[in-house]
Specification:
Blueprint: E1 2-9, E2 19-26, H1 33-44, E3 63-66, E4 69-72, E5 85-89, E6 95-97, E7 100-101, H2 104-112, H3 134-138, H4 157-161, H5 168-178, H6 186-193, H7 207-211, H8 218-231
Parallel strand pairs: 1-5
Antiparallel strand pairs: 1-2, 3-4, 3-5, 6-7
Helix pairs in contact: 2-5, 5-6, 5-8, 6-8
Bound molecules: iron/sulfur cluster (SF4) and FE2/S2 (inorganic) cluster (FES).
Length: about 230
């Protein structure tokens, strides 16, 4: 079948600003949007800049706007979207070229919340693994699924208007450790997330939950982090 695509293009060396270009390619209904972008790059215009790695919904590198909705291009099938299919870069991050944005501000927010296991640095090394019950593991299971695609953060109106906000993905990854029974850094992280750029900037728009390709309950995780910060409940 013929598939019509409207792709946002921007070459900083030639263009004053972004514009759309139309392409018609031959594709199957079960092809993924990432396959279509590869076809455009292979047969129509090799200068098209697209970021991707795994092609299977795991690396999180190909988040784009598809008909105005944040999604991974490798997880959306041609048959499931209305034509012409509009593809734009995710919003709120500096545009580098075509569909590629600068992810540095996103990862800066992520690193601010110390997304790693924190233990007492002067405590004696444990002599065996840190045990955890199934219930304790279950407590943060949802937020372990994050692949750092930025679909949530770049669908957030607060992040669009204030790049200082750490954003939903950073809070999701803080949640993953705050509620881990083996971690001892919850207070430190909650202090960071109680600051002016932290979790209380969230206005519960729910865009993040709708955007997450991993089905993570992002808004719920943010609410749990806010409660933990207010009531020390972790
Ligand atoms: S929470 Fe979901 S949308 Fe946000 S970065 Fe992680 S996987 Fe992507
Ligand atoms: S290319 Fe890795 S998630 Fe889509």
């Amino acid at each position: 079948m013929d598939v019509r695509l409207r792709i946002q293009r921007f070459n900083p060396e030639q263009d004053d600003g972004p514009h759309f270009e139309d392409y018609t390619i031959d594709a199957e209904p079960m092809d993924r949007l990432l396959d279509c972008l590869h076809k455009v790059k292979a047969y129509e215009d090799s200068s098209l800049a697209v970021r991707r790695s795994c092609g299977h919904g795991i690396c999180g590198s190909d988040a784009v706007l598809i008909n105005g909705v944040n999604a991974l291009a490798c997880k959306v099938l041609v048959k499931d979207v209305k034509q012409p299919i509009t593809i734009e870069p995710i919003r709120g991050l500096p545009l580098i070229k075509d569909l590629v944005v600068d992810m540095d501000p996103f990862f800066q927010g992520y690193l601010e919340v110390k997304p790693w296991l924190i233990v007492d640095p002067v405590a004696k090394e444990p002599e065996r693994e840190r045990l955890q019950s199934q219930e304790e593991r279950e407590r943060f299971d949802d937020t372990t699924k994050c692949i750092l695609c930025a679909a949530c953060t770049t669908s957030c109106p607060i992040f669009w208007s204030d790049g200082g906000y750490v954003g939903p993905a950073a809070i999701v990854n803080a949640h993953r450790f705050i509620f881990d029974s083996r971690d001892e850094g919850a207070r430190e992280r909650l202090e960071i997330l109680s600051s002016k750029n932290g979790a209380f900037k969230c206005r519960t728009a729910f865009n993040c939950t709708a955007a997450c390709p991993r089905g993570i309950q992002v808004t719920k995780a943010i609410q749990e982090v806010k409660q933990a910060a207010l009531f020390g409940s972790f």
